[in-house]
Each structure stands twice: as structure tokens, then as C-alpha cells.
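In this section we walk through a basic example: taking a raw amino acid sequence and producing a predicted 3D structure, encoded as C-alpha cells. The instruction is simple. Fold the sequence below.
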Amino acid sequence: MAVPHQVLKGSDVLHDISIISLPLPLRMGRVNCYLVRTAAGHILIDTGGSNARKELHRELESVGCMPGSVKLVLLTHGDFDHIGNAAYLRSVYGARIAMHLDDSGMAERGDMFANRKRSNFLLRALIPIFSGFGKAEQFTPDVLLDEDCDFSPYRFEAKVICLPGHSKGSIGILTASGELFCGDLFMNTNGPMPNSLMDDPTAAKASITGLESLRIRTVYPGHGQPFAMELLTKCMP
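The resulting C-alpha cell sequence is shown next.
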């Protein structure tokens, strides 16, 4: 079920977060989506994979999301377990889709390795099959995210932080109250830690280092439970 987790207070708005945990294909774990309710409607951060579409639809309905109420889908990166329902949500709910330019080719061409350094022909062929990411799931984003993006029309007090490493176009969403939706930069399936799957480890290290100067209270990872940022800094070398 969608789990209410936090109420974020900005200067004049309330942000209610619900955590939606969806299954990955082949029982390979779970992936998180985060539904944020603002005064202007709902924002969904990541969408899960198309294999879990029925579960996502049911969870959205359980918290009152109807067509027209999901205003924006923010995608932290282009992996199919995070973007698999974006096109569906745009079609059914009328949501606009936003992601970074550098990962948009993954969505447009249905190729998770479109901008990655490391590739494997067999994986390129098999991943779309196992993930259920076909032609119907491909899309062109409505909004290309960068660090100058303004979410004020959605009454969402947050900014984009570019966090390359897991993929070239990975981003985080940092709210004014210090909540970081980090995509797959970090994970918390067996304790808070950097994600072990990095296409560019050097870029990932720089992304993590760059967070040290920011006021981050809680980290919301793509996989595993949210955790206090101080827990991560304690376990980092």
C-alpha cells in the first residue's frame, strides 16, 4: 500500500509524501515511487516498471489520484524500472513527464544503454523483454530538467540537482526542507550506501561529494527505505 511518510513544511505550502513500493520483474526486489501532494495537485517521482502497472494504478487510486490530479511525473533517471509507466500516466492522468536531457534517449529509443559507457549486446536485447518496456512505453519528455528548473507553478518548493554516475542524466530532487529524492545514487536495502551499480564511478563519487555542502535531512532512495543523511555520512569512508 502507499505509505504516508512525511509532511514537509515549506514557507507557505505543505508537501505530503506517500511511498509506493512496487515489485521488480522476476522477483528481483522492489523499486520506490514517491507521490508528493501539494496545493496544486500530485507530483509522482519515478513510476516503477510496466510489470507493476496494475499495482501502481491501485495505489494511486487508494490515495485519491484521479485523471487530472497527477500534474507532473519527475524521473530521476532513465532505467526502465523507474520510467516504465510514464507514458501510461501521461495518457491516463494527463501528467507532464520531466527528465534530464542526457537520459531522454533511453525513453525515446527504449534503450537503457543509450548514454552509458558500459554496454553488452545480450543485455541490450534482453532487458526490454524482461522489463516489459516496449514501443507503447517509449516517450519523449515534455520537460527537460536542469538545475534552473522552477517548480513554483506546481507549488513544490524543490530544486533539481544533477547527480551523474549511475547514468549520465541522473538527477536528484531536493526540497526546501532537506528531503532528497536521489534515484539510484544511494540505496538502502541492506543499510544506507552508494549504489553498487555505477556506469561512471568517478562521476558518482563527485556527485556524492557535492552533496556535502547541501542541507539534506532525509534521503529517499530508489530502492530500500528512506534514511537520515547522517546515517550515510557515518558509514562513508
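Looking at the output, two observations stand out. The longest helix spans residues 121-131. The chain has seven helices and 14 strands. In the next section we compare this with other chains.
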